[in-house]
Design goal:
single chain, 176 residues, alpha/beta, Rossmann fold, 6 helices
Length: 176
């Protein structure tokens, strides 16, 4: 990572285990600003507990972590201008909203507004789901479609969009 300044909004997307979180953490670390990690994952089972603990260990202690499975907009609103925020990840946030039977349109609008108005630069990690098979059930198709729309809307307002494939970043919008 040679970049030390960030755009107001950076989107890092890719498939599962593509290296997107590691890449996003590197972008944030390279700024030398106070780091805020907004965590959206919920601990559903032992496997998820292990994964979350591994992420915490990998990040180290110089991150302020805010657990915000749903209220990401509020967490973004509290970020000081001199900090940098990593939201990991929009896909888990959307999952939480969907499983809680939230109004996805209202939740998405609130998130997009919060991303646009956050005083600090924000890096959002999200999953690209559209490259896989068509899901077999209605809930999974609804989720895939909602994630695709959310990714498109976030990317439209971002200055930098990076796809990470097999650990290799590729700028889709803006420059690395």
């Amino acid at each position: 990572m040679t970049k030390t300044t960030l755009s107001p909004l950076t989107i890092v997307t890719g498939g599962a285990k593509s290296g997107k979180s590691r890449y996003a953490e590197g972008l944030v670390t390279a700024t030398n600003r106070p780091r805020i990690y907004i965590a959206t994952a919920r601990i559903w089972d032992d496997e998820m507990r292990v994964k979350i603990n591994a992420h915490r260990t990998d990040r180290g202690t110089d991150w302020q972590t805010i657990e915000a499975p749903r209220d990401v907009a509020s967490a973004l609103g509290q970020a000081p201008a001199n900090s940098v925020v990593l939201l990991d990840c929009a896909t888990m946030w959307l999952t939480n909203c969907l499983l809680d039977e939230s109004d996805l349109s209202a939740e998405t609008a609130g998130l997009l507004t919060a991303l646009r108005t956050c005083a600090a630069p924000v890096v959002v990690v999200t999953n690209e789901l559209g490259w896989s098979i068509v899901p077999e059930n209605a809930l999974a198709r609804r989720f895939r479609d909602a994630q695709g729309r959310l990714n498109q809307e976030m990317a439209a307002q971002a200055d930098l969009v990076v796809a990470v494939i097999s650990g290799i970043p590729l700028a889709l919008k803006g420059s690395l």
